[in-house]
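ESCALATION

Customer reports they have been waiting on this structure for their group meeting. Please prioritize. Original submission:
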Amino acid sequence: MFTRTLLVAALFGAASISSVSAQEFTFRLHQFLPMTDSVPREGLIPWAETIEEQSEGRIKIEYYPSMILGGAPANLFDQAQDGVVDLIWTVLGYTPGRFPKSEVFEMPFLVTNAEDTSRAFQRFVEENAMDEFAGVKLIAVHTHGPGVFHSASPIESLEDLAGLKVRGGSRVISAMLTDLGAEAIGMPVPQVPESLSRGVIDAATIPWQVTMALRTSEIVSNHTEFSGDHGLYTQTFAFVMNRDAYESLPDDLKAVIDANSGIEWAGRFGAANDADDVVARNEALANGNAIVTLDADETARWREAAQVTIENWFAEAAAGGIDGEALYGRALELVAEETR
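Update from on-call: job pushed to the front of the queue and completed.
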């Protein structure tokens, strides 16, 4: 009798373990761009497919692009942290002041290309800023490539920026635009096309790759780039998971998420941006648009003028108890180490 009871208990326990291991999990991924944009298309979808494959179908990802679950882009991080959704991809700069250490990667003339800068940014966050993501499971951070001006009239010198109403995508970028003489107007990227069309702004700061999803090169016909290995600006992005959703997984499925988090995916998101930067730039040329590349001397003038943005950020960081100069120095080191 005792032996039979043990056998029944063992069988019941085995069935319970099998039930747990076979359990399926469905997670909702919410973000603000169409799925045709490079990061959703070449980053988020491949990531989800990899998770589904490596979990043998036990994890399934549902896609919700273009804010169709409601809210504004600035709400996305809280949606993940609060469990409104399970996964989000967003711009860190849409919530000013929330990621003060991560902001250093938005400093003028820090970005080289998206892939290498993204790998450097991931390393930086893991070393210095994981406390800013304590409420979520961080999958990856990344940046876009060298930022470009897209404008109704040509921007061929620093003086041409004076007085222009220019969209800024984050607190730091808007501060830089103001320091350079523009009238900075902050707005999420989905508002850019209508704002350009209606003359609410004269120019936008967005990377080349986003112009395809927004059809920017059909709205304005002038674009301004910079000489050298470093672009004027970039923005920072994060792909995160609700902490409770992650903790709900058995250890073997947590391991699948863990294996697909970190620097390799950071680089992959960045590489997707780099590839579409080339496609989008060629598309603008095919449309007959004018692309101005400021020469080395003119670029140096912009670099010198933008130095005040960096100095002001140091002062703001210090006021918040953060050693901004040390973080900036480390960011430069990591970008140099990763740039090939």
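Sent to customer with the following note: The first strand starts at residue 25 and ends at 30.
Escalation resolved.
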